[in-house]
Amino acid sequence: MIHNVVRSAVYFVVCIAIQILVLNNIHFLRVAIPFFYLYFIIKIPLGYSRSYILILSFITGLIIDAFSNTPGMHTAACTLAGFAREPLIQFFIGKDLPHDTFPSYKSFGYGGFIRYVVTFVSIHHIALYLLESITLFDPLLIFIRIVASVLMTSILICAVEAFNLETQKSGE
Amino acid sequence: MRQLLDFLVRKRHWILFILLEILSLMLIYQNNAYQRSVIISSANIVTGSIASASGFFTSYFGLRSENQELLEHNGQLEMQVLALQNELAVLTGDSTKFTGYSPDQDYIFSYDFIRASVVNNSVTNLANYITINKGRKDGIQPDMGVVSDQGVVGIVSNVSDHYAVIISLLNPKLRLSGLIKGNFFGSINWNGRNPCYVNLDEVARHADFQRGDTVVTSGYSSIFPAGIVIGTISDSRRQQDDNFLSLEVELATDFYSLKNVRVIRNFNQSEQLKIEQEAKGNDS
Questions:
Q1: ipTM here
Q2: Which end of chain A is more exposed for a tag (fewer CB within 10 A), N or C?
Q3: Which of B16, B41, B191 is nearest residue A54 as measured by Cβ atoms?
């Protein structure tokens, strides 16, 4: 249990640091921005109450908002995605996994994990960009931005997961 | 009663979810105004100091090109000084041969600069903001104009003790009037697509201009002095209502590599605003 808390804290700090220090400056072909910090919420172990995950994702969003000057947008999108996490896992994985299992290629299977990541990221990005479009509404631009960013974030998260030494070592 | 409590406990994550969403939507709503709160922005002390620490490292990138630009800028200024010295020498050298008019010595240039470094900058969002490392204690107030060595950057929107957040030109909330050489006005705004271009809308149909003409600030708003470069005209087309032209302006400022800016302080700003308010008050 203690091990899990420390581990989550490390994930939390590393993901947010990477996001605000490096990835917030990336604007691939002027449309795609990777939101890698979602990896933290994706990797929260199974078996925690939904309220706990909701509060964690709310705080994550709030911190990202504070650093990127977008008050409320990431918070709202993150809370929605955190709320949808449990039903998504139920839907894609179905079978009951033991508590404290970390979502990974091994525990979910390759197809399952990728489907889970892509849907999770899509929910977050659609919410985020629609909220952002309050300031400027341009349907085609928003659509392109959503698709490009979902692709970029999903690819990044799947790639990092594949090279995540910790997952391979503990052999989950 | 028991059943109701049971229901509430069972569905507590729904209640929490709705509560948190309402909270975040309130945040969005509150901060969509022109003046925003400082607490959840990169101008508070924690986010500001982390951002300036990372800005300290990234400021070493691109030193060579920055140096080059400064040299060029320096050269131009030197040329101007020489030209002005020449003029001065003509005016003061021989009073019997005086031909021009002597400038009014009572006139005081009412602007001065506060130098600042960018600690946080975004070009990726639809509404972009820039954070700088100077704040209220350095004399920065909301509604001051901000320029770089190349041209206009934006307007200060909110200020904490040591940091300030600037609404960048790349933000639909920013309204600025631009002037084409030859006295045609338009309003500058960004369409969210490309951080290198803005639009100059509401230009009169009969405006006379060419591609490559410079667009400068008009100096009417008391935020910027007249004649600061915004960019150059790169394309033109008719606006939808057909009465005005909409020009595409290539920005002089490179927002991708913005590092040092100057905040413009106008000593007469409050006076001008006051008299404008009075004039508007007379209307109604």
A1: 0.79
A2: N
A3: B16
Q: At what angle do helices B12-31 and B2-10 cross, to 10 degrees?
A: 60
Tell me the residue type at B141: Q
A162: how many CB neighbours lie within 10 A of its CB?
A: 13
Number of Cβ within 10 Å of residue A146's Cβ equals 19
pTM for this entry: 0.74
- Closest Cβ–Cβ partner in A30, A71, A138 for B36: A71
CB pairs under 8 A between A and B: 111
Answer yes or no: do A71 and B131 touch at CB < 8 A. Answer: no
Long-range contacts of A1-10 (CB under 8 A, 24+ apart): A4/A45, A4/A100, A8/A40, A8/A44, A8/A45
Residues A133-157 have pLDDT tens digits of 776 677 888 888 899 999 999 999 9
Q: Nearest CA to CA, how far is B33 from chain A (Å)?
A: 11
Nearest CA in chain B to A27: B124
Cβ neighbours around B36 below 10 Å, total: 19
| Rounded Cα–Cα distance for residues B265 and B274 (Å) | 17
